[in-house]
Design brief:
alpha+beta; 4-stranded antiparallel beta sheet; 4 strands; binds flavin mononucleotide
Length: 215
């Protein structure tokens, strides 16, 4: 064990947060205290980012009317997704895919505008901006779990429609509607697995040695 390692209890807490983080769509009444929200956003902001570009932007939605309009965008896309799924449409429509109107806080996570000038680490892989924002969202997700709050990542929306609704500049792109707040309990496993929509595959299916496909 490295002498730089955390204590046993600290390490257990880190792995517990990772293992018990869930994508939540069911919320209960309650608030997220301002200092707690600040801590969570601070955790997001400490994420790694390609070339230290820090491409994340968060918009906190406090206007109830605006929240409703965001939910309507998601509902429209939910119906389009169901249509695109064809024979799985009915099963999809039974799933709960967001808790926008029930959660304490809605945050929209977006990529900043003017990203073209950031070339370091993005010349051949421009999507590393998206990867960086995802790291920030994961930090927020894990910190929320440690604080006992649930978070759900909603990506069912037309990005330009949401960008227009929130007055984003050209080039900025919303990637996630984050539903955050108190929950009654965390799902014991991914909800999509519990609902029979999909099943998790083991790490051994995804781990190769030397050559793709070789274990
Ligand atoms: C990039 C991304 C987008 C997602 N978008 C949605 C979404 O629009 N609606 C939804 O219900 N869940 C969404 N999820 C949650 C996934 O369904 C969930 O992470 C997965 O089923 C595993 O469950 P777990 O997060 O509880 O481990 C998203 C997750 C990620 C990482």
């Amino acid at each position: 064990m490295s002498e730089l390692a955390f204590t046993d209890a600290e390490r257990a807490a880190v792995y517990r947060a990772i293992g018990e983080r869930r994508d939540m769509r069911h919320f209960v009444k309650g608030e997220v205290a301002p200092e707690l929200l600040g801590r969570l956003l601070g955790a997001a902001h400490q994420a790694p980012s390609v070339g230290l570009m820090q491409p994340w932007r968060f918009i906190r939605i406090t206007d109830v009317n605006l929240r409703g309009r965001i939910q309507a965008l998601v509902e429209a896309e939910r119906l389009r997704t169901a249509h695109a799924l064809g024979e799985r449409s009915d099963d999809f429509m039974k799933l709960k895919v967001e808790g926008i109107n029930d959660c304490a806080e809605v945050l929209v996570a977006a990529l900043m505008d003017d990203r073209e000038k950031h070339i370091f680490g993005r010349r051949t892989l421009p999507e590393m901006d998206l990867a960086s924002l995802s790291c920030a969202i994961q930090n927020l997700w894990l910190a929320a779990r440690a604080e006992g709050l649930g978070m759900g990542w909603v990506s069912l929306f037309e990005p330009q429609a949401l960008a227009d609704l929130l007055g984003m500049p050209a080039g900025a792109k919303p990637l996630a509607i984050l539903c955050l707040g108190p929950v009654e309990a965390f799902y014991p496993a991914p909800m999509l697995a519990l609902e029979g929509w999909a099943s998790e595959r083991p790490l051994s299916d995804m781990l190769f040695e030397n050559q793709w496909g070789e274990s």
